Amino acid sequence: MIKSNPILFTIICVFSIQAIIFSGLILLKKPRIKTNTFLALLVFFYALIPLNIVVVNVLKDYDLLYIFRYIQMEMLYGIGPTLYFYTKYITNPKFKFERKHYLHFLPLVLEFIFYRTSIYRIGSDGLYLQELPTFSYVYLIQQWIGVISILTYSFISLRILVKYQKQLKEYYSKIDNISLKWLQTPIIIYACYFILWQVLTEIDRFVFDRSLREHYFLPNFVLLSIATCWIGFKGYIQKERELVFLKPFSKKSKSITIQKDEIFIKRLNLLMETKKPYLNPELNLSMLAEMLNIKPKVLSLKINQNYNQNFYDLINSYRVMAFKKRIESPKSDQLSLLGHAFESGFNSKSTFNKVFKESTQLTPSQYLKKNKNTSEKKR
Question: Could you tell me the pTM of the whole model?
Fold first, then answer.
């Protein structure tokens, strides 16, 4: 056990309970969709972990620890599957939760049952003895398998999200509000958290005889409760329009090979020079395909084949060129750099800075300074 710390206990409780409230709000959020159900469960399962720690230590202070052995709340085996199905729902419009998918939650049911057995009670109490009883090893193995489950599902979910983000660039020229990067960050944080937590506790157990426990135990759960509250809040305020469903190109269309098409290149370049569709921040693949009178999947393939770029990179390259022309004009001082960026088709400062830096290896201000120095030398 650890020494009680009322301040840290209070912080953990506040953020954990707030996270549970967010999970309820997400669950009741309209329209009622399966996506929100899994997000609510994900936040709820994560919030139980730090709250569980506070409950066990408070009961310990009142010599009521034996009660906790019957009400253990931690649900490690529910986190991975919930995260996975949430990710599937927000990235695949055709995904349906079927009866066979309930098998993913079978370990969660077994975990719940395990916490109600004498094996768990004896094993968890044995962790504080000098010599660990057999049941304690059973409990530790169960915990490690739970962590491995979370890491495995997290890895799979990250792969799905990365693939989704790449696919977005085939459809959209603006992806700030639909890339779901807000979800990718906590997944990485949680995955690293469980790895470091297990490694640290085992090192402390066998090398330092738990002498470091007081320094890292509660602060870790404070961070976990804060992160969980954040993802609950972020998930609750996400607007439904931001959960973009993509229709992936069929395997048949992916197999089509397209040679360099000079006619297509000329048509596209002419459209860009005359109508300047890239100035529309909301421009997407379907809109551009309609202007060219071709199918979106064919347009995407032609762009990749002829420009060695996806739709997102191509459109933003035109926006960068438009920005350069604007700041090189005599009237460039009438607007700020960000103002010129918005007039060039960008509608996000962060996206503009990132795209411009990737294109020129300079920040916008560095490019402007370099351009002015070049102009002065020519004079």
Answer: 0.74
